Amino acid sequence: MNVKKMQGFVSEYAIYIVLAVLIIGITVYDPNFIGISSLRDILVQSSTRVIIALGVAFILITGGTDLSAGRMVGLTAVISASMLQMQDYPRRFFPNLSELPLFVPILLAIAVGLVFGMINGIIVSKFKVPPFIATLGSMVAIYGINSLYFDMDPNNSQPIGGLRDDFTKMGSGSIGIGPVSIPNIVIIAIFVCFIVWVMFNKTRLGKNMYAIGGNEQAAKVSGINVSRNLIIIYSIAGALYGLAGVLEAARTGGATNNYGNMYELDAIAACVVGGVSTTGGIGKVQGVMAGVLIFTVINYGLTFIGVGPYWQQIIKGAIIVAAVAFDMRKYAAKK
Q: Best label site of 97, 135, 169, 308, fewest CB within 10 Å?
């Protein structure tokens, strides 16, 4: 393999090389890191994050950004948790609410995320507000709405607990396959990744998404209804945030109005590290998955070997800056 081919290989698979190096380095330091329990913990912690990152990826590929993702996760976590408490729990959010079928609060929470995503899409596409400003405003507003809901009588801003077993099993239960058990939340995340992959690669919406991110004016000239597509894309992203909020409440067994805080920054970072271009038009599902895994391995692995949280932040920041610099270098080379 000559130097040029080697450079091309490294450029194409850099994200996976970094992930492998991280795992090997931590394992060399502490061989106990490689084990079923560690792998399980990493996958469980990555599950909700990858769903959020996929929603953000939809928007980044169009050339936009979304700062409201984390707050949507918090709102939908609180909504689903507030309606899925055990009947005999002493501090129920809705004391007189009868036991609802499991799917009702879940679908309601996802629908709430979809509606707020749609609002973002309308603001961006119809009113021409830059995505950064539009989603910054909705981030603040959604947190205010969530806090008002969370502070309603008789809850009065108390953490929501006592969630039903059938709900928490979504986040903490598993399915046994021979000697191995696969967490339910991981199965859900894999299924979502597959659906998003199909949408990215096999649908007209996916083709339009890449076209809009590559050159919006050219997309309009080619007959793509940019406004309608953006509204649909932001709505799908919102629905994914809603699903992530539901799963986060199920995984942790509770919810507060601070759930999801800063999750959008982790999601954006995972997308960028995973090869989703900050200039739009480029991004793959498998890259987003690898980006999420990298940051989970950093958080979990470095904690596993005793590296302090401040050093973890320094390492994460360096990786993010390096990924963006690499992305901009590739973009400049193509111009």
A: 308
